[in-house]
């Protein structure tokens, strides 16, 4: 009887599976679950509210700029703006659009391979304590903070004056490649560092070599960060004015060769805005520029998702 009373008086045991089933994984928590968790920690709750406020203000500013540009530019869009030849009557943006694609493509073609391979060398081959790596990183950070007009003056002195290329799309593309190279290199370097070392160790354990590990395992894992850096660099090229005015020129035509003079969309919009008779066309050019950036970013994200591997 004593054994029976002890058994009846014992509290029912709960299995570990029952306790674990009540735990919601952090990546599946709803906003209400996070609020209930933050109520117990006032400081975390305050930080979360500040982050949400900052995100809301940023999104509101971007949305306001885009909507205001669309409201000002869409009514001024007309077929004459897309004529193949620029005249003072139609102020066509088509030559500037073609020049923008040429300069952006050439600059990325030069900057992305050099920046990616430089980042691979610094992360995968060179030691973190290497003096050369420290110098390269310091130079990249310094170049990232230089104003764009300084790059324009450099391009004008080197390509226009010393090499005697005059104002040319090739000189502008090389100038832009030099300007975005530190951005591509630093973003790629941080993306490669974010790849876990277990990926490398597992690849080496399976017998893969250094190059195979880099190109088959590490680069696909870091592809999203690399694509983000390329998109940022592309946005800087497409929206640049000062550097291209001093290196590529301001002539509103598509040159017959890469050594010819030509303006990009941003320069075209700047030139129209300075003329009081074509302010509406400048807003229309801004709409086309925003649409171009959105299309390029969407294409880059699509390609990045195709190349990215999930583990």
Brief write-up:
The chain contains 14 helices and no strands. The chain has 311 residues and is mostly helical. The chain is globular.
Q: How would you sum up this structure, described in words?
A:
By secondary structure, this protein is mainly α. The chain has 2 domains: 43 residues; 231 residues, MetI-like fold, CATH 1.10.3720.10. Helix 4 packs across helix 14. The longest helix has 32 residues. The N terminus is likely disordered.
Q: Report Rg.
A: 27 Å
Q: What average pLDDT do the residues reach?
A: 84
Q: What is the CATH H-level superfamily of the largest domain? A: MetI-like
Tell me what portion of residues adopts beta-strand conformation.
Answer: under 5%
Main sheet record: none
The dominant shape is globular
Summed up, the helix count is 14
CATH topology label of the largest domain: MetI-like fold
In CATH, the architecture of the largest domain is Orthogonal Bundle
Q: Work out the count of structural domains.
A: 2
Which spans have pLDDT < 50 for at least 5 consecutive residues? 1-20
The run of helices and strands is HHHHHHHHHHHHHH
């Amino acid at each position: 009887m004593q054994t029976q009373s002890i058994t009846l008086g014992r509290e029912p045991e709960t299995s570990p599976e029952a306790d674990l089933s009540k735990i919601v994984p952090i990546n599946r928590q709803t906003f209400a679950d996070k609020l209930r968790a933050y109520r117990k920690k006032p400081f975390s709750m305050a930080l979360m509210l500040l982050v949400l406020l900052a995100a809301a203000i940023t999104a509101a500013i971007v949305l306001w700029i885009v909507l205001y540009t669309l409201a000002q530019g869409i009514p001024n869009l007309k077929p004459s703006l897309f004529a193949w030849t620029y005249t003072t009557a139609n102020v066509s943006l088509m030559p500037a659009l073609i020049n923008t694609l040429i300069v952006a493509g050439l600059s990325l073609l030069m900057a992305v391979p050099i920046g990616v391979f430089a980042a691979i060398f610094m992360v995968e081959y060179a030691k973190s304590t290497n003096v050369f790596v420290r110098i390269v990183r310091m130079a990249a950070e310094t170049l990232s903070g230089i104003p764009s007009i300084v790059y324009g003056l450099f391009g004008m002195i080197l390509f226009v004056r010393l090499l005697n290329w005059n104002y040319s799309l090739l000189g502008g593309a090389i100038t832009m490649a030099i300007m975005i190279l530190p951005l591509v290199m630093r973003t790629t370097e941080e993306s490669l560092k974010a790849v876990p070392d277990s990926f490398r160790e597992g690849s080496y354990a399976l017998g893969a070599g250094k190059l195979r590990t880099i190109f088959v395992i590490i680069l696909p894992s870091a592809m999203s960060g690399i694509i983000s850096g390329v998109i940022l660099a592309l946005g800087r090229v497409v929206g640049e004015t000062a550097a291209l005015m001093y290196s590529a020129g301001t002539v509103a035509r598509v040159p017959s060769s890469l050594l010819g003079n030509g303006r990009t969309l941003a320069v075209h919009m700047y030139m129209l805005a300075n003329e009081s008779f074509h302010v509406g066309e400048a807003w229309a050019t801004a709409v086309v520029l925003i649409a171009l950036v959105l299309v390029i970013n969407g294409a880059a994200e699509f390609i990045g998702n195709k190349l990215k591997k999930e583990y």
